Amino acid sequence: MRNRSSMTEHARSFDRAAAVYAATRPSYPPAAVDWLVPRSARRVLDLAAGTGKLTRLLVDRGGLEVVAVDPAPNMLGELHEHVPGVPTFVGTAENLPLPDDAVDVVTVAQAWHWVDPAAAVPEIARVLRPGGTLGLVWNSRDESVAWVAEFGDILIRLYERDEQELAPDIGAPFGPVESTTIRWTQAMPAETLVDLVRSRSYFITATPEQQADVLGAVGDLLAGHAELAGRDVIDLPYLADCFRTRLDA
Questions:
Q1: Exposure of 4 by Cβ count < 10 A (0-12 exposed, 13-18 middle, 19+ buried)?
Q2: What is the C-alpha to C-alpha distance for residues 24 and 22, in angstroms, rounded to an integer?
């Protein structure tokens, strides 16, 4: 398990690759938003919003006033390009720039493993209205597919498989955590698989030699695997793991 200082370095690295992140990282299935955000909700904070992958879906849902917070200004710059009109603030889960009882829902996509729960949980509870919902979601590649498993084996040359908890422990003042998994697929140009690697924190912080090794191996996979070779567009299957819990009223 990485220590906290190492995790902070990796988290901050995204600001150096904001444009690549925006162009290559997957979105989320709309069904995840429907499951995470109650129909009665009116104001939602998309926390650690990054370039706005989940923010866009929250806006598209309709009937929601959405505000976004992220610690990386360059990431929020990309969000403004892709989801114009959403108010944004620089901040962290441990220090939110919102008043008490400000929102009905807080969503966190692909980022819960970066936060310090001891500080973040009470801070999120502070900005939530009584009975409000905390919703977490992250994509993981579906490695039951052979070529995706090979792709994963290449990537673990740079990291250990410890980025997130599969069952996050949130605790008081929140209630029990519910969970569901939604299978979905992202169609993408084949060459985008290389850029997807470039957007990962463990790639951004790797040495040039490590980066070259991994990019070469991904190129070989694209050229040599029977399911990928010669294809202009590939389907990358994902599992969207979703978790929700309500603030005790």
A1: exposed
A2: 6
CA 156 and chain centroid, separation: 19
pTM of the predicted structure, to 2 decimals: 0.84
Q: Name residues whose C-beta falls within 8 Å of residue 43's C-beta, 6 or more positions apart in sequence.
A: 64, 65, 66, 67, 102, 103, 104, 105
Summarize pLDDT for 117-131 with one digit per residue, the tens.
Answer: 999 999 999 999 999
Sheet holding 103-109, edge to edge: 88-90, 65-70, 43-47, 103-109, 128-141, 233-246, 178-189
pLDDT tens-digit map of 94-116: 999 999 999 999 999 999 988 99
Over residues 20-54, the pLDDT tens digits come to 655 667 899 999 999 999 999 999 999 999 999 99
CA distance 128 to 120: 12
By three-state DSSP, how is residue 49 classified? Answer: coil
Task: Answer left, alpha or beta for residue 130, where phi above 0 means left and psi between -120 and 50 means alpha.
Answer: beta
Contact residues for 120 (Cβ-Cβ < 8 A; gap 6+) = 92, 93, 94
Chain-centroid distance, C-alpha 162: 15
Within 13 Å and on the Cβ side, how many CA atoms surround 31?
Answer: 9
Q: Are 50 and 110 in contact (CB under 8 A)?
A: yes
Residues 6+ apart with CB under 8 A from 155: 197, 200, 202, 214
Count the helix, strand and coil residues of the chain and give each as a percent rounded to the nearest 5: 40, 25, 35
Q: Distances from the Cα of 196 to the Cαs of 11, 74, 118, 152, 161, in angstroms?
A: 16, 18, 31, 12, 17
CA distance linking residue 31 with residue 157, whole number of Å: 33
